[in-house]
Amino acid sequence: MPSDSRIVAEVDFTRDGRQHGFLRLFHSVHSSAYGFIPVPVVVLRNGDGPTALLVAGNHGDEYEGQVALANLARRLDPARMRGRVIILPALNLPAAVAGRRTSPIDDGNLNRSFPGDPNGTPTQQLAYYVEHELVPMANLVCDLHSGGSSLMYLPTAQLPGYRPDELGARGLAALAAFGAETAYVVAANQGGDQTLTGACLRQGVLSVATEAGGAGHLTAGALRMVERGVNNLLVHLGVLQEADRIAPPQPTRLLEVGGPDYYVYASDNGVFEPLAEPGETVMAGQPAARLHFPETPWAEPVLLSFQRKGVVLCKRMPGRSMRGDCLFHLGTEIGPGGPYSG
Question: Which helix (H) or strand (E) holds 217?
Answer without folding.
Answer: none
